[in-house]
Amino acid sequence: MREKKPIVGTIVGVFDGALDGLRAQLISRTRLGYTVKLLESKDAFRKGDTVHLSVAEFHIHKGEMTEP
What we know:
Helices cover 0% and strands 34% of the residues. By secondary structure, the protein is an all-beta fold.
């Protein structure tokens, strides 16, 4: 069985810009948005922290949604 490639995106417009531009990996999708794991550290937020975001706050990188 083929292992799924992790879906990676960029955080925008959350916590008054505290996480803007950080890369994160999608963990799960819910009715309310996304749960992501931070791939970088910034200020009080550390690599590996889990954050809940709305759909508008997490932009999935192009090409990450398509299967080969």
